[in-house]
Amino acid sequence: MNSQSGMIAIVGRPNVGKSTLMNRILGEKLSITSRKPQTTRHRILGIKTIGSAQFVYVDTPGIHSNSESAMNRYLNRAATSGLEDVDIVIFVVDGEKWSSEDELVVEHLRNLEAPVVVVINKVDRVAQKDQLLPLIEKLSARMEFNAIIPLSALKGHGVDNLEQKLKELVPAGAHYYEEDQITDRSERFLVAERIREKLTRQLGQELPYALTVEIEQFKETGKLTEIAAVIWVERKGQKGIVIGNKGSRLRTVGQESREELEELLGRKIFLQLWVKVREGWSDDDRALQSLGYRES
Ligand SMILES: Nc1nc2c(ncn2[C@@H]2O[C@H](COP(=O)(O)OP(=O)(O)O)[C@@H](O)[C@H]2O)c(=O)[nH]1
Ligand SMILES: [Mg+2]
């Protein structure tokens, strides 16, 4: 049989819609999304098999110019390492805004051998298509791209054009994953991420960077799954903010998380959340490692 199989990295600066795009293509919410940078902190595979072709997408953290903390350095490594080994790169940009961080991404892509397809995302926000022309010119002047495809990951418009293009580009080869597998990540990982998404969306600008979620217990008891998670923050004051007035914020996060997790796992869930302080964990390489921030 003429099977096709390829690794497709989704790269770009933070917040352009990489994770939204992967979820849209897969038709599943695998990667968490939000308006804040650093929402995606790990590489996540999303696998889609259509007949004889297997597409293995790699969602990555945003490539960014800040390298001040150990976390920021980790994120950039996770975003850029292994790019030489993928078969296709999707470079996502925001149709509304080009920035110096996009330039930085181009620097990482310029010398790759794999074909690079540019996705101009968020075109639902662009009233007239010809508004995209200056951006297309700018892109074309930077390097040679295999294709430039405008689309809306959020609404789904134009995503089929991208998938069609990928089908043309994906090389011949054996499948690496079972036909019905959709990710390389465990349920435990997905659960921690969903809780972090709820926190990220609930909290103001600064705090999401200072927290991470660790699953301490994941136990099936009869019809119920018991999950206990620790929300790690960096300072005592942050703990108060996460908990909220009389525990109100933590309650909201817990309730929203539980509802989503029951849908994700298809089971009833008993969820317990604890907030704990670990000073400076995000700028400490060892703490990062022990909290799951290690390269695979
Ligand atoms: N209007 C609009 N918003 C989008 C689109 N794609 C993503 N977004 C929003 O942009 C924000 C960042 O998305 P996310 O996927 O987390 O970006 P990432 O950091 O590149 O992974 C979220 O609030 C998304 O809902 C799109 O096509 N149109
Ligand atoms: Mg993301």
Written description of the protein model:
- The protein folds into 2 domains: 4-169, P-loop containing nucleotide triphosphate hydrolases (Rossmann fold), CATH 3.40.50; 187-290, GMP Synthetase, Chain A, domain 3, CATH 3.30.300.20.
- It has a 6-stranded mixed β-sheet with strand order 2-3-1-4-5-6, with helices on both faces. The chain has a 3-stranded mixed β-sheet with strand order 7-8-9.
- Helix 6 (187-202) runs antiparallel to helix 9.
- The protein contains 10 helices and 9 strands.
- 35% of the residues lie in helices and 23% in strands.
- With 296 residues, the chain is an alpha/beta fold.
- It starts with a strand and ends in a 6-residue tail after the last helix.
- Residues 18-19, 31, 39-40 line the site of magnesium ion.
Secondary structure class reads alpha/beta
- Please indicate the percent range of residues in DSSP E strands (runs of 2 or more): 15-25%
Enter the CATH topology name of the largest domain: Rossmann fold
Question: How is the biggest beta sheet arranged?
Answer: 6 strands, mixed
Based on the coordinates given, report the CATH architecture of the largest domain.
3-Layer(aba) Sandwich
Order of helices and strands: EHEEHEHEHEHHHEEHHEH
Describe the strand arrangement of the main beta sheet, using strand numbers. 2-3-1-4-5-6
Bound molecules: guanosine-5'-diphosphate, magnesium ion
Helix percentage:
25-40%
- What count of domains describes the coordinates? 2
Number of strands: 9
- Rounded Rg: 20 Å
CATH homologous superfamily label of the largest domain? P-loop containing nucleotide triphosphate hydrolases
Q: What coarse outline follows from CA principal-axis ratios?
A: globular
Cα(first) to Cα(last) distance is: 32 Å
Residue stretches low in confidence (pLDDT < 50, at least 5 long) are none
